[in-house]
Amino acid sequence: MKFLIVDDSKVFAAMFSQMLEDAGHEVEVELHSTLAMDRIEASRPDCILLDIMMPKIDGLALLAQIRQKFGADLKVIIVSAKAYEADRQSAKTLGADGFVNKVVEGDRLLERIDEILSERPRIRFWGVRGTLPLAGPESLRYGGNTSCVSLHFPDGRLFLFDAGTGIKHLSDHLMTHGPHPLRAKIFISHPHFDHIQALPFFAPLYIKGNAFDIFGAAQKGRGIRQLIEGQMDGIYFPITVSEFAAHVDYHDIGEGEQDVEGIEVRTMLLNHPGHCLAYRVNYGNASFCYATDNELYPPSSAYYNEDYRRQLIEFVEGVDFLITDSTYTAEEYAAGKEHWGHSAVDEVVLIAHHAKVRTLCLFHHDPGQDDAAIDRKLELARAQLKSLMSATHVIAPAEGDSLALPSR
Length: 408
What we know:
Layout: E1 2-6, H1 10-22, E2 26-30, H2 36-43, E3 47-50, H3 59-70, E4 75-80, H4 85-94, E5 98-101, H5 109-118, E6 122-127, E7 148-152, E8 158-161, H6 166-177, E9 183-187, H7 193-196, E10 211-216, H8 224-230, E11 247-252, E12 256-260, E13 263-269, E14 277-283, E15 286-291, H9 306-316, E16 321-325, H10 330-334, H11 345-354, E17 359-363, H12 371-387, E18 393-395, E19 402-404
Parallel strand pairs: 1-2, 1-3, 3-4, 4-5, 8-9, 9-10, 10-11, 15-16, 16-17, 17-18
Antiparallel strand pairs: 6-7, 6-19, 7-8, 12-13, 13-14, 14-15
Helix pairs in contact: 11-12
């Protein structure tokens, strides 16, 4: 691609120019914002990297001029040392395609540019096991942390799903790579410990200026705030929620549809003890569903519910990625696991196939299963999909794996 860097800092301009050229891109630099419009007209770049703090004409004023003259087809990414949410929002309102903090995120500029220009949200797995974390050599490949998945949008918005022990690694990542301040939405499926146990270790909650919205279903008359407070009441954990320095809003939700910062989030109650929510995110033509924990009774069970299966198939129909409870093999489930609230992988495969899911992600593995056992579940799922002549693809994500949703 052809880039134009508009930045009055010779140091940053030279550093970013070298990074882009080393990656095979063509780069021009303009150090004077007053000359930028003429330079854009002459060079016709594919993308402009634009600083904010410049003399004469600041970056936001220049962004407004660019949009007025060249429209929305010319990609413009703000690359600034400023870390204020107000500036991010101003850039977004004026039509910036993305915002990169040059101090915190500068070392991964190429990665951030790719994320922004591809317009593809990315899913990342921070914990894939259920019930209990697992340590030791038997969990090295898939990881031993419990449920946590993040969804990163090109414009910087961040959705988090569950707060098992995996959220501690996400916390470390965010503290190192930003953004600062941090704004995120946290969606809790249900308050069983393997889904909330590491929320107290999520360091961004203790930083003033950060802001979070926590969503979840009420349980026995207690809202999501009370449920979070309950495990941090000074008895079970030495720090209480009053120590959160970030601004935190709590939202009790049930089945239905939410507009979350302009993104459609649909919810469905799952078959699990208490109230457990599945979340489906629709973003343009792309879709993602996080549906754990859930028990699919097999047809041989007296509790088999065809109507519930139909509702679940309708809820996940056509999603690009379905991350769902795949705790047991059929043999493990039959050996006394009925009513434990989790599914056998063969029943999950049938749901994904009938719903025309593009990619099924096996998730929430039993702590008694080592990496080889997860491999076997994956082999069983692949064989079953092949026998069904299904178009659905199946994977077993590991901690740290990242998947890209289709572009809008």
